[in-house]
Each structure stands twice: as C-alpha cells, then as structure tokens.
Amino acid sequence: MFNRTIELSVKEGCACNNNCIFCEGLSREGYREDYIHPQDSETKKIKLELYKLRLEKAEGVTFTVSGGEPTIRSDIIELLSYANELSYKYINLETNGRIFCYTEFTKKFVKSGCTHVTISLHASNAKLHDEITSASGSFEQTVGGIKNLLTYKDRVKVRIRVLIHKLNYKNLYAIAKFISKEFKGIDEVEFFPADLRGASPRNHKKLTVRLSAVKPHLEKAFNLLKRNESHFLLFHIPFCVVDRKYWENIGYRVVKDGLTTYKPSSPKDCGVCTIFESCNDCIMSEKCPGVWEDYTSWFGTREFKSIRSRLQVTI
C-alpha cells in the first residue's frame, strides 16, 4: 500500500447518467451544463489541488463524485492524465462504468495512465440492475464496459463494487456467479452495505435490511468466489456478523490522528461508521469496521455480539 492516498471529489452532488434509488444525488436537478462541460477555471482548480497534494507527498488519488458520475465530465481524461504527469503511483476512478462500453473512450482512458478503476455492479441481470439504477440499458453498458476494460488488464486494474441493500441481498450469490463467469481476470470484488444517509426517506423501508439476514447470502457468494480463487473484500460489516474464516477479507478499522480508515485498500476518512459500548470487551473491537451510523436507528444493536474467544487472530 502507498504511504498516503487521498480522495478527491471532482464536484459535489452533480449529474449522473444513472439515478440509483439509494444515492444521495437522487434529488438532483437533472444534468447541469456546468458539470458536464466545466469551465476552465474549475479544471484548473482541481489541477491545482492535485499539484498541492502531490507536494504534500500524497502518492495516490481516488477520483469520485458525491451523487454524480465523473466520466460524463468533458475534462475527466485531462484530469487523470495530469495526475499521471505528477507521478501519482495510484490513480483510481470510481464510476458506474457505462461509458467504457464505448471502445474509443476506453482507449483514451487507458492512455491517461489511470491505474485502477472501481465499477459498481448492482445485480446479476438487467431487470434488477436497471430497476436499482432507474436507467434502462445501464446493465448492458456497465457489463460491456467492464469487458472492454479487461482487455487492458495488463495496464489498468479493474475492481467491481457491490453495494448491498434489501433489493439485491438475495441476489449476491448470483452476482458472484455472474462475475466469475463473465469477467475473467477481475482484480477484486468489494462488498459494501449501501450508505443510505443521502437516500430519500421514502426509500429507506425499501432498502434497509438486517445484516443477519444478509449473512447467509453473502457467505454463499464468498464461498463461490473463494473456490474460483477470486480476491474479494468486505467493508463496514462487523466481524461478529461474518464467519471467522472470512475475517481476513474484512477491511479492518485503523484510527490514527483522528482519521478512520479501512485497510487494506480504503484510503478515505470513513469516520461515519460506529461501534458500540457493548463491544468494548470484544477481542476485535480495535479493528472492527463497525456499521453505518444510521443502521442502529433502524435495527438497534442486538444482533452484534462481543467475540471473547482467545483463539489467535492474525489480520
């Protein structure tokens, strides 16, 4: 891992070519011309931020958009290329992946020097995926985009991110099976409970699900990925929810200088997750990733049990 990685939002709460029902950008006012075609002054501002962070010895950067899609910006290739010129060792783009179904864009992207791309896949089939994204045809484009990127797997590492919620948790095994069959050479599969802080309250009941209900479907997916020797990670689910044999796949919590991060691959401040007083006597409490803060307001804490075994744990 790199000495220091940072997350750079290239614009908060802007346009997207999906309209995911769990997303904090759900209430956005459609496409904004100043986002898709940003003014030169904003592009220069982001470049200046990249330059300053590099001077401060940052070695990695993740381009993301809170509630939006970075690849529909007309300057995204320019920004990625600039990060490469500054010799960032780790350049990651978080995206829905749809634009990579276009071969010419994919070629330009690979030439930019971006080292990693993280693509969200919400289901194993078009019907459910498109229902979640509220965008007809999004599944077909995302799948095509991942396949296009994998033809360049010697130049860019491709990760798939699966956000877990009530609409897709029973589909997790099918997702793992689909990934194993369709995406040979994928570098990593990440599983996250969806962060619903920004979702419309009217969708909470439709999306919230107990982690104890997710567990059997998640572990069945893990079993398949493990058999296929696929690398996978799990974030923001406590150790007590998951079978011990998968603990090595959990992104564990590290708190340093007031910053909460999750190893081995999450560079960003994730302090909005929490553990509980009842967890203080758990042998994994110092490393437990906890859950999203809103989770306990829906379900409480009864399903989380302190682990007191003296069994040696190495993570």
The main β sheet shows up as: 7 strands, parallel
Distance between the termini: 15 Å
Q: What name is given to the CATH topology?
A: TIM Barrel
Tell me which CATH architecture applies here.
Alpha-Beta Barrel
Total number of strands: 11
In helices, the fraction of residues equals: 25-40%
Radius of gyration: 19 Å
Structural class: alpha/beta
Find the CATH superfamily. Aldolase class I
Description:
The protein is an alpha/beta fold. The chain has a single domain, classed as Alpha-Beta Barrel (TIM Barrel). It is built from ten helices and eleven strands. A seven-stranded parallel beta sheet has the order 1-2-3-4-5-6-7, covered by helices on one side. α7 packs parallel to α9. The longest helix has 17 residues. It is globular. About 5% of the residues have low confidence.
Write the layout of secondary structure elements.
Blueprint: E1 5-12, H1 33-36, H2 40-55, E2 60-66, H3 76-85, E3 90-95, H4 103-111, E4 116-120, H5 126-133, H6 138-150, E5 157-164, H7 172-182, E6 188-193, H8 204-207, H9 211-227, E7 232-234, E8 252-256, E9 259-263, E10 273-274, E11 291-292, H10 295-299
Parallel strand pairs: 1-2, 2-3, 3-4, 4-5, 5-6, 6-7
Antiparallel strand pairs: 8-9, 10-11
Protein name: Radical SAM protein
Domain Radical SAM core: 1-233
Pfam family, one: Radical_SAM
